[in-house]
Design a protein that fits this description.
It contains 23 helices and no strands. With 519 residues, it is mainly alpha-helical. The chain folds into 2 domains: 430 residues, no CATH class; 88 residues, no CATH class. Helix 5 runs antiparallel to helix 8. The radius of gyration is 23 Å and the shape is globular. The relative contact order is 0.11.
């Protein structure tokens, strides 16, 4: 499971860097303007269609069914998969066609704060991006086969290929504004998200599609997937809420929020999502086999390891938010004032990153039990409740209010998930988690002060050498924080640090070894 997490996490890390480079290019060419706002808003409707068909969860919900059918009879497994694939393809084609012809109306829903020609251009962007959902959804089905086979390499790199084509489209067609990035989305989704998984399944174990309209397991599968289609969690709609309600704020707000969220999602994706994706096949396998004790231990281990990484990383990222935004985005049409606003938004969003990590693992635990209803119902309730909060904070406090609404929504959803799991499944998966998390927070706080002092000691003036100053601040504060945190964690929380320090070479093992000798 650890190796799988490294493969998936490495691919996601590379993809996130590609995404950062893509957004850097957008900020360089278009800054935080209405043109960039329109591009980000153009994803609202396509993403909602994807969510309506549980696109992000197809590979997740398919795995237990595929595992069951393929273990019993491979031919039956292919008939089941073919039936699911057929209905997914038909459904997404139909929804995409309806949305394509309704683009002008849907544009008003995606960005209700826009008017006139802005809506016309948004509808144009929307029509370019919409067909990409066909490739995403069909590719997700194929990715389910790869996850079932525990082949993680291709799923880890599809996003890298996707981002490469977006960047290429933006560069080649930069004279046409953000339109080039939209065409890059379309081409990248076909090659990266559909063609690559198709080839990987075909040549990595075989692909045998059958003409299978109805299968006995199809009904049960869709009953499991239905809550994910009807229920919309705040973790799924968070980005869309930023875009929709950000349109009520000042021009550039959607872009500022998107840039800040891009940075915030790096630790979420590399640590939280990678751990959730990698642990899920193992959790599903343990639950199917009835090994509940190991099932709960796996959940606890995954959550504790995720929090052990995310809490210190996010604390340091809050400290280094301003130089990070300055180094990555401040250039071209993205000015000093844009940097200040985006950095503030990033600091707010980073507060809830540990909640992302916690719920990414816990939601997979629910899915491993084939309980998609609980997360969907809880997510839908929380989402409905926080909509007024998003609107009021957006109207009266602008982009910062939208960011705080996002944080509050994630905190509420995470708490609701934890309480409901304890009610339904007991607290074995949480034993010792709170105590361990508290110790991580204390060690993190102790490492922050010397890291702040180191960053503040940068010899370069941000006014005259903004990028060199930002780089040295990040390197100095990050190095000091990493060294101090590793030393303190190795001595005071070795049981939590061992999975990480033990794998970074002799120095890390020496810290743990010294602690063991001293005790």
């Amino acid at each position: 499971m650890g190796l799988a997490a490294v493969i998936v996490g490495g691919g996601i890390l590379l993809s996130r860097f590609m995404g950062l480079f893509r957004d850097k290019l957008i900020s360089l060419l278009f800054g935080a303007t209405r043109e960039s706002d329109l591009y980000f808003a153009a994803f609202v409707i396509p993403d909602l269609i994807n969510y309506m068909l549980a696109g992000g969860y197809f590979s997740i919900t398919l795995i237990p069914f595929l595992t069951k059918y393929f273990e019993e009879d491979e031919e039956e497994g292919w008939r089941f998969f073919s039936s699911v694939f057929l209905w997914v393809a038909v459904s997404i084609f139909a929804l995409t066609a309806v949305a394509f012809f309704s683009a002008p109306t849907l544009a008003r829903l995606a960005a209700p704060g826009l008017r006139g020609q802005e809506l016309v251009r948004l509808a144009f962007f929307l029509r370019i991006i919409l067909p990409a959902q066909i490739f995403f959804l069909c590719g997700s089905c194929l990715t389910g086969i790869l996850f079932m086979r525990k082949q993680f390499t291709v799923p880890a790199v599809v996003s890298v290929v996707y981002n490469l084509f977006i960047i290429a489209g933006g560069v080649l067609l930069r004279s046409r504004g953000m339109e080039g990035f939209c065409w890059g989305v379309l081409v990248g989704s076909f090659i990266g998200n559909l063609l690559l998984p198709f080839l990987a399944v075909k040549y990595g174990g075989g692909l045998r599609l059958r003409w299978s309209v109805f299968h006995p397991g199809l009904k049960r599968y869709f009953l499991v997937a239905l809550p994910l289609m009807l229920g919309q969690s705040i973790t799924v709609l968070d980005q869309q809420f930023m875009r929709v309600f950000g349109s009520f704020a000042e021009a550039g707000a959607v872009s500022w929020l998107s840039y800040a969220r891009r940075i915030m999602m790096v630790p979420v994706s590399v640590v939280a999502q990678a751990a959730g994706m990698a642990s899920f096949p193992f959790m599903a396998d343990l639950y199917v086999k009835g090994e509940l004790s190991r099932f709960y231990r796996t959940i606890k281990s995954a959550m504790q390891n995720v929090l052990t990484l995310l809490i210190p990383v996010c604390a340091w990222m809050i400290l280094a938010a301003e130089p990070t935004i300055r180094l990555i985005f401040q250039q071209g049409r993205f000015g000093v004032s844009d940097t200040a606003i985006t950095a503030r938004l990033l600091q707010v969003l980073l507060v809830c990153v540990p909640c992302w990590g916690f719920q990414q693992v816990l939601s997979r635990a629910f899915y491993a039990k084939l309980d998609t209803l609980s997360p969907a119902v809880l997510g839908t309730i929380v989402t409905v409740l926080v909509i007024p909060m998003f609107y009021l904070l957006a109207v009266y406090t602008g982009a910062v209010g939208v960011a705080w609404a996002s944080v509050a929504a994630l905190l509420i959803y995470t708490a609701a998930m934890a309480v409901w799991w304890r009610i339904k499944s007991g607290g074995e998966a949480f034993d010792g988690l709170l105590w361990g998390t508290g110790k991580i927070v204390l060690v993190t706080c102790a490492a922050l002060l010397p890291a702040w002092a180191a960053g503040d000691a940068s010899p370069f003036d941000p006014l005259f050498s903004p990028y060199l100053a930002a780089f040295t601040e990040i390197v100095l504060s990050g190095s000091v924080f990493g060294i101090v945190f590793a030393f303190l964690s190795g001595h005071f929380i070795p049981e939590l640090a061992r999975p990480f320090l033990g794998r970074i070479g002799p120095v890390g093992r020496m810290l743990l070894k010294d602690r063991a000798a001293g005790s």
